[in-house]
Design goal:
Two copies of one chain form a homodimer. By secondary structure, the first copy, chain A, is mainly beta. Chain A contains one helix and eight strands, in the order E-E-H-E-E-E-E-E-E. Chain A has a four-stranded mixed β-sheet, with helices on one face. Chain A has a two-stranded antiparallel ribbon with strand order 3-4. Chain A is globular and about 40 Å long. Chain A starts with 11 loop residues before the first strand and ends in a 5-residue tail after the last strand. At the A-B interface, strand 1, strand 2, strand 5, strand 6 and strand 7 of A face strand 1, strand 2, strand 5, strand 6 and strand 7 of B.
Chain lengths: 118, 118
């Protein structure tokens, strides 16, 4: 169970987190092919539900995500990509897709400091 | 579109992130009732797909998640809860559910430093 359980869940949500400052950048969907391609190429790939195809993040914009580490959750049905993000993660030009504060004004979600020593 | 689009997506994935150190704690599912209850009570609620009911995180374990902030993504189909986590987030007793490193040994996903000044 150290790998995502695509047999039970053909599409699994993947969180992209900035490996430098911990900011959550986006959430997208991953199928087995996208996961394998991510592992093989070292760049984040997803499965586009709207276009029904494999999608390399940044394939058009150049705003690619270099994989630093990958974690799978306890139920093997969620994925965490730690990435080095080139350019803004969001197609709107914001650093992160999570720029809408519920119940309030817009505001980018927080960045954190450098990683603490282990 | 500052709120999740439950009309288009009855179940929306929600990321819980530790508001103190940026660690990604878990991913679970939220419907309109869970989201409203989260907003009203200030504690993270989800919708359990396996039990088919509203679920307050920590309702049995006491490992509740106090809401610090809530963000919605650009497509209004993903949610980010910034939380103060009481106790471990994972039912296995780990701090985070993302303790399995893909293709390698177990290891908790990284924590980050204190939030940087704005």
């Amino acid at each position: 169970m150290a790998e995502p359980d695509f047999a039970a869940h053909p599409l699994i949500p993947a969180i992209a987190q900035d490996a430098r400052d911990g900011r959550v950048l986006m959430l997208a969907w991953v199928n087995q092919e996208a996961f394998r391609t991510t592992r093989e190429t070292g760049f984040a790939h997803y499965f586009s539900r709207s276009r029904n195809r494999l999608w390399k993040k940044g394939e058009e914009s150049g705003h690619v995500q270099k994989i630093v580490d990958i974690f799978v959750d306890c139920d093997a049905d969620a994925i965490l990509y730690l990435v080095e993000q080139t350019g803004p993660a969001c197609h709107t030009g914001r650093d992160t897709c999570f720029f809408r504060r519920s119940g309030g004004a817009d505001g980018l979600n927080p960045a954190f400091g450098p990683r603490q020593p282990e």
